[in-house]
Amino acid sequence: MTTTKPAALPANPRFSSGPCAKPPTWSLEALSDAPVGRSHRAAIGKKKLKEAIDLTRDVLGVPADYRIGIVPASDTGAVEMALWSLLGARPVEMLAWESFGEGWVTDVVKQLKLDAEIKKAPYGQIVDFATVDFDKDVVFTWNGTTSGVRLPSGDAIPADRAGLTICDATSAAFAQDLAWDKLDVVTFSWQKVLGGEGGHGVLILSPRAVERLESYTPAWPLPKIFRLTSKGKLIEGIFVGETINTPSMLCVEDYIFALNWAKSVGGFAGLQARADANAQAIFDFCATRDWIDNLAEDAATRSNTSVCLKFTNPAIKDGAAFAKGVAKRLEAEGAALDAASYRDAPAGLRVWCGATVETADVAAMLPWLEWAYQAELAAQA
Q: 0.90 cut: is pTM over it?
């Protein structure tokens, strides 16, 4: 065992799972064209918001007949809009395998008071989609941000389902293949894989979701901030840049920059390849060490964005304290910032590997991870 510090640090040690690292070419100059001090309802404001929507469709490959809207309150706001506006027409099935999925269960069961069927899997595992009844409305996260466990594909979702699929894809969008024909509602926040600023969400609706909105009225009152219809018809303006409330034009400009950067690295395929390379560097590291492993038990479900790790050495006396100690050492040395696991997740580390992270920085961080592990192990002796 050696506690000699590595020679080189990552050029960018930011491995936070949200807000995530900015694109490598980003600078404050990227925001110089933002129409600050102007109304978002002015022609320039609407143009910018429409540009953001159109670029989102282009980069993600969203079908032409799906609506894309920019909504308030980050991914949480987008999910809540879908839950409150769409659920109640059919029986509901809730799927959860980490804390954010658990949060949607709480909202549906305790706030909306729906008698939903709940299927859960522990951290490191995923719900068996073969057991899910897709004639019900089904709510799930595609990628568990706090568990590092993702749905490997949409193959288990039937094309002829009677219910809607409502998918929180905030840490999957722009890095993982989303099966658009199997998804009726998709939500995300641009603070994740594209390294945007927090506070804004994106809500994507299939024609089936729009039909539900226009044919069903929930039994509960809807706050203005959740309303997607007026007089029984979809408010189309939301999906061309006429937002429900006031967006930050600085944040919109930042998102436009990130989307154009995404196109410059090969669009969705390029983004996915970058995330895959980042995650694979960590997987390879773990494969040659007996003291650390991926929290995801099945390699097919391992996330390529929110890579969650667990320490496996039985000599570790207090897992939670040990993991926090390693994370503190990494941060103190400037080797990895914000790499601690989520507060509700099992003790360990969480390293963001989305496309805005450089593989060279992941590679430079890993020797520091080994050093921090060894130093913390020596300190507990």
A: yes
